[in-house]
Amino acid sequence: MTSELDIFVGNTTLIDEDVYRLWLDGYSVSDAVALRVRSGILEQTGATAAVLQSDTMDHYRTFHMLERLLHAPPKLLHQLIFQIPPSRQALLIERYYAFDEAFVREVLGKKLSKGTKKDLDDISTKTGITLKSCRRQFDNFKRVFKVVEEMRGSLVDNIQQHFLLSDRLARDYAAIVFFANNRFETGKKKLQYLSFGDFAYCAELMIQNWTLGAVGETPPHPDSQVDDMDVDLDKEFLQDLKELKMLVADKDLLDLHKSLVCTALRGKLGVFSEMEANFKNLSRGLVNVAAKLTHNKDVRDLFVDLVEKFVEPCRSDHWPLSDVRLFLNQYSASVHSLDGFRHQALWDRYMGTLRGCLLRLYHD
Amino acid sequence: MPGKLKVKIVAGRHLPVMDRASDLTDAFVEVKFGNTTFKTDVYLKSLNPQWNSEWFKFEVDDEDLQDEPLQITVLDHDTYSANDAIGKVYIDIDPLLYSEAATVISGWFPIYDTIHGIRGEINVVVKVDLFNDLNRFRQSSCGVKFFCTTSIPKCYRAVIIHGFVEELVVNEDPEYQWIDRIRTPRASNEARQRLISLMSGELQRKIGLKVLEMRGNAVVGYLQCFDLEGESGLVVRAIGTACTLDKLSSPAAFLPACNSPSKEMKEIPFNEDPNPNTHSSGPSTPLKNQTYSFSPSKSYSRQSSSSDTDLSLTPKTGMGSGSAGKEGGPFKALLRQQTQSALEQREFPFFTLTAFPPGFLVHVGGVVSARSVKLLDRIHNPDEPETRDAWWAEIRQEIKSHAKALGCHAVVGYSESTSICEEVCILSASGTAAVLNPRFLQDGTVEGCLEQRLEENLPAGCGFCHIPYDELNMPFPAHLTYCYNCRKQKVPDVLFTTIDLPIDATVIGKGCLIQARLCRLKKKAQAEANATAISNLLPFMEYEVHTQLMNKLKLKGMNALFGLRIQITVGENMLMGLASATGVYLAALPMPGGIQIAGKTPNDGSYEQHISHMQKKINDTIAKNKELYEINPPDISEEIIGSPIPEPRQRSRLLRSQSESSDEVTELDLSHGKKDAFVLEIDDTDAMEDVHSLLTDVPPPSGFYSCNTEIMPGINNWTSEIQMFTSVRVIRLSSLNLTNQALNKNFNDLCENLLKSLYFKLRSMIPCCLCHVNFTVSLPEDELIQVTVTAVAITFDKNQALQTTKTHVEKSLQRASTDNEELLQFPLELCSDSLPSHPFPPAKEHLESASSNSGIPAAQRAVTVEKASPMGEGNFRNRSTPPCANTTVGVVKMTPLSFIPGAKITKYLGIINMFFIRETTSLREEGGVSGFLHAFIAEVFAMVRAHVAALGGNAVVSYIMKQCVFMENPNKNQAQCLINVSGDAVVFVRESELEVVSTQQPTTNCPPSCAGGEVTT
């Protein structure tokens, strides 16, 4: 006796969260059955392995049919074939677009191209995530990227509108799109200690402050309207950053800056002497990063530079995070007291974001 | 020109890409009705076209309006080649033809293609303007309402239940016409879909005409089926129960029928009235109903050769009074006379209803069934389908005579079915023989006092169990005792019925699904030989199925079966029998005896040991089941009841017969002689097998109950969470040395595994009950067995369960008290039932007062209804709330039950009856047979929901998948499936919402008389 056909169709589509998880994780039906058996479900429910097999097959079939709709989540909401309560629809979408930390760290900042897709085998081997799941996650990134890349308006809003993701997940995707678009290097060995969360945090700050959309008004040049508001960095701003160079190039200004910071922090910093000794190096590092951002190549290396020029020196001197915060606050604020320096607004736009990023990046 | 049909095509969405080059579609729409076609403009290059067409107007006869479906075809415009069809939508406009149903059909319909399935959606608005034409010879029957529900629909009251209506139409199956060899599969499928749609429309119209002739205004329990007879044609047949219904919309509707006889006739659209005086003269003598005769049977049943002949139901002298109790005697006799006079005029006193208004069902005799094996031949003249008509007439006569043998005048819970394999067809009919109260069967002219006195003499909760037949002149050997409830009248030891458990029945514990499953191998044969072989096998199958049912019932410690449905399916080389029913313990019936096992070979120590081991196992199972289903009847000593009447023990209330192309009626005595206890003899391995199989049925996991009736006895606190589902399984038997046992085991495992799967899948709904579990078996090919199950899972509140069962018991105790007391206690009781914080809805109060005024002693029953199926017939304002108006798709509930737990149906929008064909030539690519069928069933659900939503409804009740014919050819990578579904589209309102409404406007809802009641609460 063999089962030729075995189906179950509910008026309300049944979604088993555990099986959905297994399907998303790319397990085959037999692997999924084995995993479910191991979870002790048979003992809990008194079911047989055959029942489990049939149930798993059924759910997999449903998910397979739903997948086409999940590629354009608004379709899932308006389709008539599967009656799914709104909360369940949201869960389906949210879980489908969720991604693994290990996976996203591998592709963050990479071009979402066929070339990268070919490397998914290696990523799968390296991360232990099934190839199927890697493909789904990669395709999700790419799909979201394609849809919102050319779109104007808030990146997060666009993603939310077209993919109906939760606020948190939409922000993550905004970061992924932003990183993919600007191709920030995140894979270097010295960046390995950073989590996706760290990068996403920085991305959000940068989107808020450094992009065209951040200016909050229509771009000054009519021909630059084709620029994407949130996805591309504000080129003009990057150009202007060159002006900051005088903070380290002008020796008087640098000395004055240093003395202002040192006066303010004396007795408040545990690592005062180290700070005093390193001030000029750190300042040069931070300002030079700004000045180099006109080149695409250097934009890509932003995080490498920040870690090399600031995080690593501080860490080697064992600065506690509180001291880093005090220093950066004072370092940014003191510039306002430099009479010879006219680019206060520019400095704030740059340093405000950078300070946030650095504090986030500063950990072990 | 009696009608104008107006159609507007608004927009499309999610259309498929038809032009690969542009990834877009140039769509336009053809709207066709009858022979008239309109077209919209082509909307270029869009997958979401906005046609916003003008109103297309069709001027048509109402006859066409009833028969024809509106056909909407979406096409892709192609300048250089033929336009490609994207798909079609068939809209049945029947719901627009009667005033109380929908007024407009408007919404998104899935565009369906028989090859590709659903391809996008189209937004359509349909309206009908009907003109009155009173003085024409009517061919149409617009205005007659149809309900699939097999009880009186919730927001109606039955004024008269007229009786059986049937009709069939035949045609050639387009699939077998010569032209099918040259046309595409799509064209062939569409021709078939269209033809069946047309035939169902015609059938419904013809049934409607009969109803009008009988002066009814509605058909309840409408069941329409297709017989795909292959080469010999296509038969569409329908049965139903004609009724005169009155909508419960105003308090006046609660008034007894005899007070306002003209009122309920208002709606009935009849053209010529033979004796109009009947309606205006108030209450009249019982004699009157004889003058109020129906037109001769010929007029509402086409076949007649056998109809007027024999088997008139003239009462046997003394039959009625003989079995009646002391006090009840004279009234019972009178009642019997009246019923007979009312039923005598009917050719077939059959009712497709399974649940009845309180007081309708007086006694139940038992199950009657008849089967007949026929050889199919080509239907030569579709306009004269005489042979098919004659076949059914024959079977109905048999049923009628069986019922008569049981001392019953009527058959309730009646249904008909067929099983076809090649050229052999088994026709089956079954029902429950019953004695009915004449009150509902004729115009409201019966004297009220008589009724009331009759009612008083009918003990509540057990009356229907009392035997209708004469105990001195019993049709079969039966074991009778005095009723355990009233101790006055005789009851049988077991009761089998095809109806739902009456709402006032006193049941102990919970019920459970009981199935008997059986296979029999049969030699492959041709024509006559095959038919003979089948008819020879049938009696044995019936006998075995029956024995199995009886054994399983006893094993469960129960004494009655409700909703019994025995399906015999014929295949090339085997016959399958599947009986499903819901077992219960009726308090009125005696406690079932145990099962004893006896060995045939005595003096064998180890064998005896084995036997005693088995016996112990069986006894343990019975004890366990009694605990599981909470069956603990009160101990009654024999003395109180009196010694049982010395009568041969009766095993069966099943009368059945088979006949093979002849009128020969063979009756089967299923009693097991005079053995005192139920003894199973283990005389060979076969019997051993049987005992084993008895014990292999696993009870559902804890928290699960199942039944095949509307509601589960013993559970009445449903929550609103429901899940309707369809599950299909096909197994392939290994063809090598198949034996009956192996086959039985395979089939048994298939059903058991299917149930296990369901329990597992629905485990998140625990505590829950699978209701209306409907199994269908078919044998699509030599070695394939297909089982289709449709049911609904309903969760219930475990904590409340204890509480309500307690009050249920209290209530049954109280029922014994006098009417007056009950009326006084009644509101208090209701208050204690409902949660303390719960405001007492004034409308319920009103219901109470209104129904007690009317002299219908249904007060306590109304409560039982309200609790069991939480939708009492309170006269809440009909407030049709639009289905969820949020941006996403509105939820449409589907259920095979006639109600929705926790909600009240406020409006019936019309019948849904849909037929779909789906075919594929890329089976593998669509996920194999499972993927193909899974997608198709999901699509069918979607199309049903879309039609209901377009009618303005938010649920389908009494949903049934009548047919699911699946054929595959994996070698050719092909498969085809036909599905036929039906149900009633309704609008329901959550009870919580209703209460808010009713408390907000108590003055408008509640007449002054119940203002006092409001104050007290």
Automatic annotation (TrEMBL), chain A:
One GO cellular-component annotation of the UniProt record comes to:
nucleus
By what name is this protein known?
Answer: Acidic fibroblast growth factor intracellular-binding protein isoform X1
Q: Name one GO molecular function term.
A: fibroblast growth factor binding
Q: Which gene encodes it?
A: LOC110575996
- Which processes are annotated in GO (biological process)? platelet aggregation
Q: Which domain of life is it from?
A: Eukaryota
> Which species?
Neomonachus schauinslandi
Automatic annotation (TrEMBL), chain B:
All copies of domain C2, residue ranges = 1-109
Q: Provide the primary localization.
A: membrane
| Pfam families from the UniProt entry | C2, YbjQ_2, YbjQ_3, YbjQ_4
Q: Which GO terms describe its biological process?
A: insulin receptor signaling pathway; intracellular protein transmembrane transport; positive regulation of D-glucose transmembrane transport; positive regulation of protein targeting to membrane; positive regulation of vesicle fusion; protein localization to plasma membrane
Keyword hit for Lyase: no
Composition-biased stretches, type Gly residues, lie in: 319-328
CDD domains per the UniProt record, alphabetical: C2_KIAA0528-like
Report the InterPro entries cross-referenced here: C2_C2CD5 (IPR037785), C2_dom (IPR000008), C2_domain_sf (IPR035892), C2CD5 (IPR038983), C2CD5_C (IPR057815), C2CD5_YbjQ-like_dom (IPR056430), C2CD5_YbjQ-rel_dom (IPR056431)
Q: Where is the composition biased (Low complexity)?
A: 290-318
Q: Which GO terms describe its cellular component?
A: cell cortex; cytoplasmic vesicle membrane; plasma membrane; ruffle
* Location(s), subcellular: Cell membrane; Cell projection, Ruffle; Cytoplasm, Cell cortex; Cytoplasmic vesicle membrane
One GO term in the molecular function aspect is:
calcium-dependent phospholipid binding
User: Which parts of the sequence are annotated with region: Disordered?
Assistant: 265-330, 637-669
Q: Which UniProt keywords apply?
A: Calcium, Cell membrane, Cell projection, Cytoplasm, Cytoplasmic vesicle, Lipid-binding, Membrane, Metal-binding, Protein transport, Transport
The transmembrane segments are none
Bias-annotated ranges (Polar residues): 274-289
Record function comment: Required for insulin-stimulated glucose transport and glucose transporter SLC2A4/GLUT4 translocation from intracellular glucose storage vesicle (GSV) to the plasma membrane (PM) in adipocytes. Binds phospholipid membranes in a calcium-dependent manner and is necessary for the optimal membrane fusion between SLC2A4/GLUT4 GSV and the PM.
Protein name, as recorded: C2 domain-containing protein 5
Which organism's genome codes for this protein? Neomonachus schauinslandi
Q: Which gene encodes it?
A: C2CD5
